């Protein structure tokens, strides 16, 4: 497939925002651009959204369906809300029994891949900063051979992911030619799995710091959850009940 130019533009903007500002601002930007009217749900009916946008959707639905003041209504759009979001500022919508899920906009999964690449690059930046500030036997941890090798591999993976996304946006898909429509979902799942593997390699370099309250582990998990919620992650990349 070829990703539409506007999706590429919004995806690249989300990538930049994710790297500089974090997941919630980047996802807010992407939802406002590609699904401004309804929460985009994945194939199993789940949605991961900025809580601020969820409240806006609920207020708009309440006003539209009941003709009432938004704050006085109890909109169906908030049914299934999981108050224990994976990251401050995020909320998870679970499937609403007996109600068909709103389809995510076309190429939504590819735009999320751009966003997740930006989050992975943000994690790489955090890893570099953390390791540069730590020393072992008077030498920066960045100078250790294993660390340098892992970071070099991560950079190559990021460049490869970027290349694949660029090719899809321009219509180029490499020496094997264009993808068949039936291959799109599988190809995207592989790309999302690649991002997840890179993130986990970076978290291993960070050790315990990656999973402390101040560490980046929660954001990395939320990034995995996004891929899983929209049906583009390989098995085991995020917990179904997260």
Based on Cα principal axes, name the global outline.
globular
Strand content: 5-15%
Q: Record the strand order, biggest sheet.
A: 1-3-2
User: SSE order, as H and E?
Assistant: HHEHEEHEEHHH
Q: Roughly what is the average pLDDT, rounded to an integer?
A: 81
Compact overview of the structure:
The protein is 55% helix and 6% strand.
Tag the structure with descriptive keywords.
two-stranded antiparallel sheet; disordered C terminus; 55% helix; 242 residues; mainly alpha; single chain
What do these coordinates show?
The chain is mainly alpha-helical and 242 residues long. The chain is 55% helix and 6% strand. The protein contains seven helices and five strands. The strands form two sheets. Strands 1-3-2 form a three-stranded antiparallel sheet. It has a two-stranded antiparallel sheet with strand order 4-5. A hairpin with a 2-residue loop joins strand 4 (135-136) and strand 5. The two termini are 31 Å apart.
Give the topology.
Layout (H helix, E strand, L loop, with lengths): L4 H17 L1 H12 L12 E4 H16 L14 E2 L7 E4 L14 H25 L2 E2 L2 E2 L4 H26 L13 H23 L10 H13 L13
Antiparallel strand pairs: 1-3, 2-3, 4-5
Helix pairs in contact: 1-2, 1-4, 2-4, 4-5, 4-6, 4-7, 5-6, 6-7
């Amino acid at each position: 497939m070829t990703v539409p130019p506007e999706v590429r533009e919004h995806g690249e903007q989300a990538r930049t925002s994710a790297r500089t500002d974090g997941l919630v601002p980047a996802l807010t930007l992407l939802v406002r651009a590609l699904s401004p009217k309804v929460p985009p749900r994945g194939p199993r009916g789940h949605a991961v959204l900025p809580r601020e946008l969820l409240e806006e959707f609920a207020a708009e639905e309440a006003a539209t369906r009941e003709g009432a003041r938004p704050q006085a209504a109890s909109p169906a759009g908030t049914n299934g809300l999981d108050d224990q979001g994976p990251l401050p500022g995020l909320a998870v919508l679970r499937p609403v029994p007996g109600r068909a899920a709103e389809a995510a906009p076309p190429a939504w999964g590819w735009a999320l891949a751009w966003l997740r690449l930006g989050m992975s690059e943000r994690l790489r930046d955090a890893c570099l900063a953390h390791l540069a500030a730590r020393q072992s036997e008077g030498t920066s941890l960045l100078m250790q051979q294993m660390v340098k090798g892992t970071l070099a591999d991560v950079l190559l993976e990021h460049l490869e992911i970027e290349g694949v996304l660029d090719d899809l946006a321009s219509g180029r898909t490499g020496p094997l030619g264009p993808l068949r429509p039936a291959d799109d979902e599988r190809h995207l799942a592989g790309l999302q799995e690649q991002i997840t593997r890179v993130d986990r390699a970076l978290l291993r370099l960070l050790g315990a710091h990656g999973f402390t309250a101040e560490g980046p582990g929660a954001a990395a998990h939320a990034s995995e959850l996004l891929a899983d919620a929209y049906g583009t992650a390989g098995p085991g990349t995020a917990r179904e009940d997260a």
